[in-house]
Predict the structure.
Amino acid sequence: MKIIYLHLILITISLSNSFSQKTKYLYTPKEVQNAYKNDTRTQTGEPGKNYFINKPDYKIKASFNPETREIIGEETITYSNNSTDSLDLLYFNLYMDFFKKGNTRDWDVGKTDITEGVNITKIIVNNNEIDLNKTGNNSSMLVIKPKNKLLPNSTNSITIEWNFIYQGKTTVRGGEYGDKNFFISYWFPKIAVYDDIVWWNNHGHTGSQEFYNDFGNYDVEISLPEKYIAWSTGILQNADKIFKDEYITKINKAKESDEIIHIITTEDYAKNNIFKTKAPNTWKFNSENTPDFAFAISKNYLWDATSVLINNKRISINTAYKENSTDFKQVAEISKNAIKFFSNEIPAIAYPYPQFTAFNGGGGMEFPGMVNNGDNTSLNETLYLTAHEMGHSYFPFYTGLNEQKYAWMDEGLITFFPQLFVEKFTNDTNYVFFKNTLEGYNKSANSFIDVPLMIPSDNISKYAYRFQSYTRSSVAFYELYKLLGKEKFVAGLQLFAQRWNGKHPIPYDFFYTFNEIAGEDLAWFWKPWFFLMGAADLSLGKLETIDNETFINIENYSGFPVSIKLTVKYTNNDEKKYNYSSSVWKTAKTFKIKLLNDKIKEIRLDSETTPDAFSENNTMIFK
């Protein structure tokens, strides 16, 4: 009986190990399990036969007064309910209610920008006006009950009229920069995402987590006072009605040229002869299949433009910046190089928008085809910030990621691979690829703010948010890149983007797609890095002599798979380096490295270019 019992234990352990090495046996929330049962998703990483995505097209007319910061607008949303469900409630994001008096926020914004929130003055759904006294508000969400349900596979019309006071001093992702120059973000009522995972995504915006949007077409008209220039996500449709002919000539030249064209200079502002009329202008923009729409305005920013040829198509590049900017005079050229790098090297997907505009505001924030970036004091910083924010054109925008739940999917990738761009274009001979990120990881890994990536972003504290979203995630992708090699890593990004462009992938779709490219189930890699508490931690174990050969044991108590970089120095001043892939940790927690049989002076595990939360056990010195 004892022998049989032991045999059963061994079988159980064997099965347990087998399960743990398969992605389908990793923790999977019931919402995702239901998606597999409903055939909206598959355990191959592809959309299922019943997958759907709803589509909102926006026609917006708005005015903005820079003096009062008031936006007054009306919009008509043509909403295609492509699901099999009848929708008896509709949810809308009123992101500017972040500043509404009494609403919950992740940080204090002071008293200056606290407002009464977004004032909705009319809502009509399919020709039926909604009683505004019967609408509901939850944080920054507006919920309404239409007279009739929105039927499956139906096209519906929703009209909303609204007004509010835009933020000024508080420059969170947008605001006022300098003298009445504005970046305007998250400024119109936006229908929430109804997807196959949680149905309505009705989590309000409290500041830390970013956004989740459906793809749609935008037809936008913005009325501005005289002397203001506007840039936006969309392509300007009526430039010939606004600018004098000499500026139209320069704009058109830039669209066909690799040369940097100075569209508007300080001298042009001094002449005061830029516009065809002295009256206010209505700027008309159009964009297709984009998940959001932002715009920026200025009456004194300089404007440079150029373009770059990608796959026989010209991508227009615009930079709008303060005359005294420390670095923006270089950003047009940097942007051109970044578009080429992303399109041709990694992720090697053609830049997805017809234009890119960098506005010299503050911080760094991404929008489809547009970024709001502050000044930097070094070339490395400018290279990285430009590439990082531009890189979001792919993740989350091209692939429709849910930043509210899985911020690490886009921030981790876009913290990692744009650093390859910096490595290529920096003039800093001391630059070490990914070193600063690894330093940040090694400092805080295994601390209270280090939580598993698969804990949804909207369920973690603001203190853990940045480490989880940017640092731990990018280090995981860095190790995945080293494990697979550039060719397979790029192939994984390409297949993932091909499958999910214009849709809404989740982490499991990413895992299964990369399993296919890797040619193996990478559950042994996904589980520790994405699902478990803990941190990367290699240490030097004991030296052993086996059959007159010398071995050093490398211990991996945490089980986090990381590559090994070992340097051994000998008393005769020889030095030997050993490099091993993280694949050595698939099934083992100890790895033996055979050393030369010379007298050893020092053994050192690298912790500068390798993640390691506890580097104090990485060195042995012999006397």
